[in-house]
Each structure stands twice: as structure tokens, then as C-alpha cells.
Amino acid sequence: MDIQLLLVEDDEHICNTVKTFLCEAGYRVDACIEGNEAHKKFYNNIYHLVILDIMLPGMSGHELLREFRKLNNTPILMMTALSDDENQIEAFDSEADDYVTKPFKIQLLLKRVEALLRRSGALAKEIRYNKLKLLPDDFKAVYGGVELPLTLKEFEILMLLVQNRGRTLSHEIILSRVWGYDFDGDGSTVHTHIKNLRAKLPENIIKTARGVGYRLEEET
């Protein structure tokens, strides 16, 4: 599954430069230069990591960080010219995962991004959820030691749910992340795949939020 990043940086030159290097490193990147737009993107999409400036038009980076943390625990890397202790302490108090100050070497930024993704499980060779084990490199799922005969789309849906355990994912979010933003299908496509996926799982671990979407509960 592709790794999707959100880059929020109001300096267009820095934004374009960082986005270029991230894309060359194999990541998919949504970029924006304004805080309110970033808030909408984060609310309507799922990202594996956010790179966030502090001084932004509209909502500031600190405000965005607090709002993002109300939704989920996506890794957030602050990337800012503010190097003072006060701003760093405020960021970490609001549960930022890392903090890098400008100017910086792009290779250092890429290594920090890679480290956070590895820590979150997005780059892990193996991801576990209770009795379920996912092997992203091989697109395989094993439950209780038995491999599940999943299609690629079923695996990607299950992977998406595991990576966002505890959060309800709407039909629209699942469609955009698994099939792509330009896919013409609707919620029935997701419903059919979820039904087939449930039939292949020994236990029904996928919960339905009626009229909204699907989720996996936090691990027990």
C-alpha cells in the first residue's frame, strides 16, 4: 500500500522542494500552504504522516496539531524556523512526534520521516492486531497461524483498518485510499468487499458504524 503524507508549509519554494524529494523517495504527498486547507485535508483523508510548519496563514501549526490529535495518532513532524525552547515544548506537549528546524539537510528530513513511519508500523515488515498478522511486502494476511485467501483489495482494506484501529473510516475514505481519488464507484463497492472480507475472517473483527463506515476496535 502506498504511503500517503501531508505536507503543510507556507513557503512555496520550500514546500515544492520538500515535496519533490519526498515523491522521489517513493511517497505520495498532498501539499498545502494554508492552515485551514490542511485541516480540511486531514479531516477528509487518511495520512501515514504529517509534516507541519508552525507559522501558517489561517490556522497555525500549533492549532492544527491540537485538532489533529483529537482525531487520531498519526505521526506528526514539526518543520519550522522557530527553534526556541518555548515552541518546541508547546509542540511536544501537544504530542508532536518530532521537531526539525530550518534550515535543514533534506536527507536528515527524509531519515526522520522514515524513522517515524517505521515506528508507527507503516514501513513494518510485519503488523499485528490481536490474532491477525499482516505482511505488507507480500500482501499476505495470517489469522491464528492460518493464511487467509484475500484478494489484493481485501488485503488493502484490512491493512487500512488495522493501521487506523479505533477510528471509523467512511466509505469515501476507504474508496479514495484503496481505489484512488478518481474511482467512479460508490459505497456499495466497499460494502461488497467488506462482506467478502468478513466471510474469510474466522472472527468478525470489523465493526459497522451505520451510515458512516467501518472500524476495528483498539487491541484487547
Q: Any chance you could write out the topology, listing elements then pairs?
A:
Blueprint: E1 4-8, H1 12-24, E2 28-32, H2 35-44, E3 49-52, H3 61-71, E4 76-80, H4 85-93, E5 98-101, H5 106-120, E6 127-129, E7 132-135, E8 140-143, E9 146-147, H6 152-163, E10 169-170, H7 171-179, H8 187-200, E11 206-209, E12 213-216
Parallel strand pairs: 1-2, 1-3, 3-4, 4-5
Antiparallel strand pairs: 6-7, 7-8, 8-9, 10-12, 11-12
Helix pairs in contact: 2-3, 6-7, 6-8, 7-8
What's the quaternary structure here? Answer: single chain
H and E order: EHEHEHEHEHEEEEHEHHEE
Helix vs. strand class: alpha/beta
Give the tally of β-strands.
12
* Spatial strand sequence of the major β-sheet: 2-1-3-4-5
Distance between the amino and carboxyl termini: 25 Å
Q: Characterize the main sheet.
A: 5 strands, parallel
Shape: elongated
The proportion of residues forming helix, as a percent range, comes to 40-55%
Please count the helical segments. Answer: 8
- Rounded average pLDDT: 90
Q: Which spans have pLDDT < 50 for at least 5 consecutive residues?
A: none
Strand proportion: 15-25%
Radius of gyration: 18 Å
Folded structure, characterized:
With 220 residues, the protein is an alpha/beta fold. It is built from eight helices and twelve strands. Helix 6 (152-163) crosses helix 7. It is elongated.
